[in-house]
């Protein structure tokens, strides 16, 4: 069984540390959510695989780095 995952890095203006999370959302879905948040001057809400939710004002986002979609194996390898 494999699940697709995307690593997201969000750079916030005037903040030295970026937010990093891994999600099962697609890169296209994340791009659309960012575009919608920017157009409405609203909030970008992202959820990771552990249930953590990150909410960022769209106007304060410096950059969004979307890693490649990759498959992560779930289960045990040969024992």
Give a structural overview.
The protein has about 80 residues and is α+β, with helices and mostly antiparallel strands. It has one domain. Strands 1, 2, 5 and 6 form a four-stranded antiparallel sheet that branches. The protein has a two-stranded antiparallel sheet with strand order 3-4. A hairpin with a 5-residue loop joins strand 3 and strand 4. The longest helix has 13 residues. Pfam families: DUF3107 (PF11305). InterPro entries: DUF3107 (IPR021456). This is ATP-binding protein.
In short:
The strands form two sheets. Strands 1, 2, 5 and 6 form a four-stranded antiparallel β-sheet that branches. The chain has one domain. Helix content is 16%, strand content 46%.
Please give the structural blueprint.
Elements: E1 2-12, E2 19-23, H1 27-39, E3 43-47, E4 53-57, E5 61-66, E6 70-73
Protein name: ATP-binding protein
Organism: Microlunatus panaciterrae
InterPro entries: DUF3107
How far from one another are the termini? 17 Å
| Structural domain count | 1
Question: DSSP strand (E) fraction?
Answer: over 45%
- Which radius of gyration do the C-alpha atoms yield? 14 Å
Return residue spans where pLDDT drops below 50 for at least 5 consecutive residues.
Answer: none
Structural class: alpha+beta
The largest sheet is: 4 strands, antiparallel
What form results from the Cα inertia axes? Answer: globular
Quote the average pLDDT: 85
Protein name: ATP-binding protein
InterPro entries: DUF3107 (IPR021456)
Organism: Microlunatus panaciterrae
Pfam families: DUF3107 (PF11305)
